[in-house]
């Protein structure tokens, strides 16, 4: 009795704990979404998610429990005597002999009238294998659905773009048998479950309840697809096989596949579980015989079988549309075999399945106990299974090998054309403006001076060496870290410098105010964030973690092309100042051009812990000499937790039991959650895919203090993140390595680094997917025109999107089906030497004027070489400025002449005797040379190649820029500065001396 009470109390406490955990989670999420201003988004998601779970679980449980309860009532009782069964065995044997041999005498009919309508008697040698196979099938199905549910349980809670799981089709069973050799434990576990079901068939009821809960949870994770299904926007573009609009495949077909996933589990479990209940009733295994299905049992199974066959018909109907994702042919999508053999087979099997289903359901509704064609029905089902194998596998393979492969190009040509066209549509490659570019090699010193802005923005500092230098010179304290450095462009008031490492300056074009000349400069900006993991272990206390170390401070900004004393970067913005100016700037012109304000960073890329602000404990602001300066957060971010009940709510939610016990909280104390900008925006819009590289922008987003989306204070630091709408359901579009076959850069996200406010802006209103989400969440998205112009001037074409498009373009620039089939013009991304290792060239930003474009602009560029060759064949440029944002230009080089590619230029650099000797000398005695990014820069009608050379110590690395290599046509020079290299290249007839090489003894010492 005592143990029973203990068990009941344990169950009670466990239930209360789960209830409190659920309530705290919902309550905390409501407070957080209310803080960021998107409570409506959260509530709609939760209601949809909860409704799906309740509806699917409820229907599944009612259906399965009702059928299993009915089966319990109709099954044979355990009191069925063995004499009765043996008598029936004689009768059934007699009936079987009559059926097999019509000459067999019917006069010895000894069947008992009570069991005259029983069907399919089974002896032990047939009964045991049948029930074992059914049990294994049930166990395999439970494993399949259980693996799906477990994978969803362990996935990110904010992940909404889950792919449709594999439905429980014959391929799954076949795949399982192929994997048995490598997963013996898997087979053993399945056999164990199957045997347990044979010994304890009453487990079927309990499993049905758990199965219903699991199905409800699985389908609820696809709430995003259900919302899209009911409010989708059409693509106004159809695919060629069925003529359906693309929206059917992107929005509707996934929901139908989810319906199949659910109903297959529902109907198949119901049919198999009821069949096992009947087959195992009456102690049939121990008695050694099953007396056959009674009329009531036959009628019950007929109804379940009819529902199952309707679902089989639905499965074949969906398989027709899934042919547009076939990988059978030489191109992605439905091939000749799929259209001429597989599609008719699916149509036939679908029609036959519907016919069988209606027959079984008709039999259920209008049951006739004395039906003479019952055996023929079994034969019909057997013939149907044979047709499934023949038409589903043998026939298509025969067509592929006998008809298609001997004439593959002719047969597949129209389908290749479909793949090319729809893949180019899905990745927006159709919008690329392709042009012929024939470098003339006529670049002169006058052209260099004419393109002075391009020359002054050639990037000599790569992200990696700059970050290494920042960490040595600008981290200031161990708990600060620069996680990233980002390329951007700023319009700066021109400043007079004593040394410019580019071409000789020319007069700047005056702005509206002639006294304030401005120019665009390409810069590297890096945020100085707080990394709590680097705080000494002895100081990692609860108060330090959550109350004192709360934020990073400031940023550095460096021009990409300027070298300071000793080969180190020059900084426009650096350090932490004791004055009210907060950060140190290189000149008054820079301070006027770059808004700094108060540069505290409470939300960033590595701020992964939650903090409490407005407490009795002051927050560490920044170090000042041997002391520290402290501050109290006064931003708009955070949730007030001054009251005791809110403390307990968040204590349960965060599993932090010191929160309600501390005495350092005040009535206005706030908790700041989800301070990592990626996690923050992912929690709000989990249905979007986000770029891997948020970048920091400093700008006055609310100069006139009239924009309600941005607080009216002196915070000017914002994170900008690109967001994508993706799909893997675009017909005929090649999925490639990313697993997606449609993508658009549809959204720009801005996160305030101090207040934590989040704003979503639609950057591509023509995208049907973002239009669908905008109709679902009308208050979530704003038009791009609503973004402050000071921020809009910093949007850039995202590298992740550009990488995916450029990867597809390597193959899908070939629009002729025969050229595509032969793969005779495939491209590749060339390699470059970085450090001492070869790696693929990464896209890089430039400020330059494209050929035939009369002005400089901020572009993203990537070169191509032919497959298995190293000469330059083309380069792709993405524009980022103003009205030209998002436009892609493809410059194709002539094939009849050699245009040096990056690998060829690298080879020329490394085989130059003077350059290679100098590099070899530096790669000794505790130092090593880093060959930086090789940039291919278009200037006028020519190409200029520039590569920086860095020197770093093996210990305590502090990379310095020691040389700049410039290559043009057949000339290569290496000098101390870009200016000297350009002069050596373009004044060779005046100064025919070799490249200017700084003597080894004058090299900047490492470290």
UniProtKB/TrEMBL annotation:
Protein localization: Cell membrane
Cellular component, GO, one term: plasma membrane
Membrane topology: Multi-pass membrane protein
Organism superkingdom: Bacteria
Entry's transmembrane regions: 52-71, 124-145, 183-200, 205-224, 261-280, 301-318, 345-365, 377-395
Ribonucleoprotein among keywords: no
InterPro entries assigned: UPF0182 (IPR005372)
This protein's UniProt keywords: Cell membrane, Membrane, Transmembrane, Transmembrane helix
Main location: membrane
HAMAP family: UPF0182 (MF_01600)
Family (UniProt): Belongs to the UPF0182 family.
Record protein name field: UPF0182 protein I8752_10475
Record organism: Dendronalium phyllosphericum CENA369
Lineage of the species this protein comes from: Bacteria, Bacillati, Cyanobacteriota, Cyanophyceae, Nostocales
């Amino acid at each position: 009795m005592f143990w029973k009470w203990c068990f009941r109390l344990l169950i009670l406490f466990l239930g209360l704990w789960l209830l409190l955990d659920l309530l705290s989670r919902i309550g905390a999420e409501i407070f957080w979404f209310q803080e960021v201003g998107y409570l409506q988004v959260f509530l709609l998601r939760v209601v949809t998610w909860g409704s799906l779970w309740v509806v699917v679980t409820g229907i599944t449980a009612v259906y399965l429990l009702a059928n299993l309860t009915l089966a319990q009532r109709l099954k044979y009782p355990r009191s069925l005597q063995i004499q009765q069964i043996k008598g029936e065995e004689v009768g059934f044997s007699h009936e079987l002999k009559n059926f097999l041999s019509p000459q067999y005498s019917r006069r010895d009919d000894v069947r008992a009238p009570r069991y005259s309508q029983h069907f399919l008697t089974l002896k032990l040698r047939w009964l045991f294998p049948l029930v074992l196979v059914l049990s294994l099938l049930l166990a395999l199905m439970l494993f399949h659905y259980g693996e799906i549910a477990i994978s969803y349980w362990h996935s990110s809670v904010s992940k909404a773009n889950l792919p449709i799981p594999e439905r429980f089709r014959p391929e799954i069973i076949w795949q399982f048998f192929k994997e048995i050799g490598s997963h013996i434990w898997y087979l053993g576990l399945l056999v164990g479950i199957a045997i347990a079901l044979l010994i304890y068939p009453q487990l079927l009821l309990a499993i049905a309840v758990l199965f219903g809960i699991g199905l409800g949870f699985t389908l609820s994770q696809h709430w995003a697809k259900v919302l899209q299904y009911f409010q989708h926007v059409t693509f106004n573009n159809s695919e060629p096989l069925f003529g359906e609009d693309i929206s059917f495949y992107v929005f509707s077909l996934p929901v139908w596949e989810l319906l199949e996933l659910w109903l297959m589990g529902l109907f198949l479990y119901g049919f198999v579980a009821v069949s096992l209940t009947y087959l195992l009733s009456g102690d049939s295994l121990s008695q050694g015989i099953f007396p056959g299905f009674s009329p009531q049992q036959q009628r019950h199974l007929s109804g379940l079988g009819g529902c199952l066959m309707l679902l089989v018909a639905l499965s074949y109907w969906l398989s027709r549309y899934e042919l547009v994702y076939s990988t059978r042919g030489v191109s992605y999508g439905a091939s000749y075999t799929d259209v001429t053999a597989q599609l008719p087979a699916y149509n036939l099997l679908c029609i036959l399945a519907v016919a069988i289903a209606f027959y079984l359901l008709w039999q259920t509704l209008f049951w006739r106990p004395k039906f003479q064609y019952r055996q023929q029905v079994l034969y019909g089902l057997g013939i149907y299974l044979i047709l499934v194998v023949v038409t589903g596998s043998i026939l298509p393979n025969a067509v592929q090998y006998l008809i298609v492969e001997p004439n593959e190009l002719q047969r597949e040509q129209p389908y290749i054309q479909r793949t090319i066209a729809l893949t180019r549509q899905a990745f927006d490659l159709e919008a690329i403006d392709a042009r012929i570019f024939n470098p003339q090699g006529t670049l002169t010193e006058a052209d260099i001076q004419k393109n002075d802005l391009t020359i002054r923005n050639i990037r000599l500092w790569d992200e990696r060496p700059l970050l290494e230098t920042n960490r040595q010179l600008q981290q200031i304290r161990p708990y600060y870290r620069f996680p990233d450095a980002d390329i951007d462009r700023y319009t700066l008031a021109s400043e007079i410098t004593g040394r410019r490492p580019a071409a000789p300056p020319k007069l700047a074009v005056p702005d509206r105010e002639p006294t304030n000349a401005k120019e665009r400069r390409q810069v590297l900006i890096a945020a100085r964030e707080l990394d709590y993991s680097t705080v000494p272990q002895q100081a990692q206390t609860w108060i330090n973690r959550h109350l004192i170390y709360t934020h990073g401070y400031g940023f550095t900004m460096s021009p990409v092309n300027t070298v300071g004393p000793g080969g180190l970067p020059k900084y426009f913005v650096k350090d932490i100042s004791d004055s009210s100016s907060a950060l140190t700037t290189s000149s008054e012109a820079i301070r006027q051009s770059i808004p700094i304000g108060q540069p505290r960073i409470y939300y960033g890329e590595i701020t992964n812990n939650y903090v409490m602000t407005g407490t009795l404990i002051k927050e560490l602001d920044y170090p000042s000499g041997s002391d520290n300066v402290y501050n109290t957060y006064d931003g708009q971010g955070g949730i007030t937790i001054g009251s005791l009940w809110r403390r307990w709510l968040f204590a349960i939610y965060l599993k932090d039991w010191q929160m309600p016990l501390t005495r350092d909280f005040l009535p206005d104390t706030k908790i700041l959650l989800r301070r990592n900008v990626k996690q923050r925006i992912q929690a709000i819009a989990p249905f979007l895919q986000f770029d891997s590289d948020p970048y920091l922008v400093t700008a006055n987003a609310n100069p006139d203090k009239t924009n309600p989306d941005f607080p009216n204070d002196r915070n000017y630091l914002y994170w900008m993140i690109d967001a994508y709408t993706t799909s893997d359901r675009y017909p005929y579009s090649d999925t490639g390595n990313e697993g997606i076959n449609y993508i658009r850069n549809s959204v720009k996200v801005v996160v305030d680094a101090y207040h934590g406010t989040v704003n979503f802006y639609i950057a591509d209103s023509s995208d049907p997917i973002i239009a669908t989400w905008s109709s679902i969440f009308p208050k979530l998205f704003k038009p791009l025109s609503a973004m402050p112009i000071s921020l809009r001037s910093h949007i850039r074409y995202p590298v992740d999107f550009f990488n995916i498009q450029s990867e597809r373009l390597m193959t899908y620039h070939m629009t002729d089906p025969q050229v595509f089939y032969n793969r005779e013009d495939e491209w590749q991304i060339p390699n470059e030497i970085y450090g001492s290792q070869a790696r693929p060239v990464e896209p890089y930003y430039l400020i330059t004027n494209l050929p035939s474009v009369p002005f400089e602009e901020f572009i993203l560029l990537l070169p191509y070489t032919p497959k298995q060759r190293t000469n330059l064949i083309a380069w792709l440029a993405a524009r980022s400025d103003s009205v030209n944002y998002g436009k892609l230009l493809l410059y194709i080089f002539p094939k009849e002449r050699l245009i040096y590619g990056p690998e060829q230029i690298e080879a020329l650099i490394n085989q130059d005797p003077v350059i290679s000797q100098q590099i070899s000398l530096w790669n000794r005695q505790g130092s090593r040379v880093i060959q930086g990014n090789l940039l291919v820069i278009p200037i006028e009608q020519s190409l200029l190649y520039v590569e920086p050379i860095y020197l770093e110590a093996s210990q305590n690395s502090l990379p310095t820029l020691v040389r700049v290599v410039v290559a043009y046509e057949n000339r290569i020079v290496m000098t101390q500065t870009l200016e000297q290299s350009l002069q050596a290249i373009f004044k060779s007839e005046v100064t025919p001396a070799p490249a200017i090489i700084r003597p080894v003894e004058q090299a900047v010492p490492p470290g």
